[in-house]
Structures are given as structure tokens and as C-alpha cells.
Amino acid sequence: MDEQAATEALRKSEQMASEILKNISKRVIVFSTGAEVAENQIEDTNMPAIVECLTSEGYKVSWGQILQDDQTLISAKLMESANLGYGLIITTGGVGAEEKDFTVEAVKNLDPDAATPYICHFEIGTGRHVKDGIRIAVGCYCDTLIIALPGPNDEVRASLGVLADGLKAKQGKHVLAENIANNLRDILKAKMSHFSRTLASNPVS
Asked: By residue range, what is the domain housing residue 187?
């Protein structure tokens, strides 16, 4: 093979590799977590919202199974999905402060340097809280981006615009996580303010 032919073959090979990586980056799988969803106690409204948003952005979205609250199982499914060529994995639920919430820890099993900013803090031992707060997670495993969002549908919907903008801008995991977390903190503040006003106008006798 002469030099010109070798150069052309290398160019085509690089182009093919680039196309493969582009296609992988646009493949998304979404998992919901929690016994309530698995047992049909609550309707999973997060999946359709995520599918609608990311499909409109040019992503090919697959619906993953509903995952039980098991740290090892969640980590295994995330790893499996990355190895199957999904460029983006999104989970909803399991990021709270209760004993059954393991999604953030599952992400950190695969990426110890995952960004896990707090949405709010709790005192351990109050109510059912065994952890000091609610966090989200954004991590990477084998070039696959993994994003763990809360379970409430309004919080998921509010995160999708920030997420889509971050993906377009190719933000790093720490920047993307903090942007999503900041938005969720604002939502939580608004909820607490509304609750306080409601309580003030309807005092318990």
C-alpha cells in the first residue's frame, strides 16, 4: 500500500470511529428505582418526560427496567448498560436520606470521583433520615455519563432543561452536577416557602 492509500485508509478509519462515538453518545437508557414504582403503587411519570425531552434533542432513548433499592444491583445495571454502548444513563429516585436510598452510592461504586452535590441537608436520626441529606450524582464510567436525579416528577422535569443545555455545552460532570443541583435547590426553597405560607394561613388548632 502506497503512502497516499495508507493516509486515505487512516482517514476513513478515523471517520468511522468518530461516527461510532457520535452514535454512542446519542444512545440513552433510563432507569427508575424504588419499590413503590416496581409494585405499581405510584405511576412512573418520569420516563415519558425524559423520553420526550431527550428525543426532541436528537437522542435515541431506551426504557430500562425498574430497579429495586439494592446498591449492588444498581451498580451492576449501570455497568452493564455502559458496556452495551449507551453514552448516557439516567436514573430517577433513590437519592434521598433514608436507609433504602442507594443510587448515589451505586454511581460512586463505578466512579469514586463522581460529583454528588447536596440538594438539602438533614440531621441524621431525625425521622427516617440515616444520611445527612439529599444529593444527586453525575459520574462517568468507560466514557458513559451517568446522571442520578431525584424521584419527584416536578424535580425531574425541572432538571431536564438544565441537563439538555449542559449536554449541548459538553459541560464536565462537576459543572453539570452543580448546575442541576442549584436549580433543584431553588425549587426546594420555593416548595418550603409555599408550605410555610400555607401553614401560616391555616394554623393547626
From this structure: 27-201
Cell of 196: 410555610
- How many domains does one find in the chain? 1
User: What is the per-residue pLDDT for 36?
Assistant: 66
pLDDT, position 44: 82
Give the per-residue pLDDT at 22.
57
> For residues 115 and 140, what is the distance between their CA atoms, to the nearest angstrom?
10
> CA nearest 96: which of 33, 140, 174, 41?
33
Whether residue 4 is contained in a domain is answered as no
| Residue 13 belongs to a domain | no
What's the sign of the alpha-carbon dihedral 80, 60, 87, 109?
negative
Q: Which of these, 34, 161, 142, 174, lies nearest to 91 by C-alpha position?
A: 34
Q: Indicate which CATH number applies to the domain containing 67.
A: 3.40.980.10
